[in-house]
Amino acid sequence: MIRIMTADEPTHREIIVDGKLSGECVELVETLCDEAIGNGKPVQLYLRDVSIIDESGRALLGRLSTKGISLKAAGLYSSYVVDLVLAERTEALPSRVPGGSWHDSKNQAE
Questions:
Q1: Higher pLDDT, 106 or 81
Q2: Domains delineated in the chain
């Protein structure tokens, strides 16, 4: 099950997804995002209550990010997947360490 809502904000168009980002739903979200890009405003994809993101959904997030769509997520799982996708784009996956600081995991071994 998926529910998609759109909101035209003064500065951007927001696409809000609830449910799952997998299977046939991926194509629907991609179509809506591509249409939104064509309207000329910046686009933000907000994964609000998404409980399932399969490999095709994760690949979609990567494609949308490279097209300039801003990714935003609520919830631990969705936020984690979005963080992974964005980190893969920059090829540096940050690691969380006790004490609240972020560091590059490549430098940790040194």
A1: 81
A2: 2-108 (3.30.750.24)
